Amino acid sequence: MDLYEHMGKDLFRAQGMQTPRGMVAFSGEDAADATRELGGRSVVKIQVQIGGRGKGGGVELCDSPEAAATAADRMIGTAFRGFAVSRVLVEELLPIAREFYTSLLLDRSRGDYLAMMTAEGGVDIEELARTRPETLRRIHIDPLLGLRSYHVRELVGTLPVEAWEGAGEVFRKMYELVVERDATLVEINPLVLLEDDRVVALDAKVTIDDNALWRQADIAALADQFPIDEVEARAKEQGLQYVKLDGAVGIIGNGAGLVMSTLDVVAQAGARAANFLDVGGGASADQMATSLEVVLSDPAVRVVLVNIFGGITRCDLVAQGILEALERVDARVPIVVRLDGTNAEDGRRILSDAAHPRIVPVANMLQAAEEAADLAGAEP
Fold first, then answer.
1. Which residues belong to the active site?
2. CATH number (domain holding residue 25)
3. Is 6 inside any structural domain?
4. In the chain, which end has fewer C-beta atoms inside a 10 angstrom radius, N or C?
5. Is residue 37 part of a domain?
6. Do both 242 and 340 map to the same domain?
């Protein structure tokens, strides 16, 4: 679960980290009142679960309460890169001497934590890592060993001497937060050195492991404040494993591994997936029908790719479910279907006999991905 910046900063303060004074505003009037309380000047920041706000016009420096009100009114009620904006964070302006970057994330490929720090903050860190990797210091932390002093010294050694103590303390608190709150990512960009040599977290990006929310009840309760995609909400109601993505090829498969592989081959074919949807290992006709209804309800989908390998799942039932779904919904996009495994021949025959104009049967996975990519790029 990705938290809003102000929620992440609440966790920071609870952990003993310094952040700017600030207030959440839901209107221009709220932003003006907050700015007056902060001394007449402020920075107004869009609150969304995505980065890139500075470059995208989501952060504005305001010299008066009236300017803060105008900025907040401009931001609230709009969409920032597809994310609805319902609030802004109004914070005090601080005398910044230097900006840095630091993060701590779960590295699933190695089974440990990856810590990063650089003296160049407030930048696109992915671009920095690509073009000037030598400026970004990285270390791996074994969770069984835990954070040690030499880890901290290695990280802060890339910063100016006057920031070592403050940045080291911030990083220790970040590690405590990751462990105690089941976070998979804590990122501060920028972490700033003030003119009085204090080190302050000017931003906060925090992601909590969804699988651990049962033991983080206070954080789980924050989910009610996030906008919910209508398609995702519908899938959740039906008990489907669904994740919305930003492509045009709707994906339905049985088993997380197969669905991930399908996303990969679609990308190799030159298209992007619109979603991840796993119907599970024993998908029934009703589950398939519901899955298709969910995927087809996404207006971004230009073609659906159904990729089923029958083990527990029977391909004849999958075929029946596809046809049932097409009786329930008005499918306006092609549906590429690849069936293999248990009762695959029966499933293919059912689809062939139906001769539905929207169904495109395909023999293998790579061909299916290429067909879906071609159809997604075709004129509607």
1. 101, 187
2. 3.30.1490.20
3. no
4. C
5. yes
6. yes
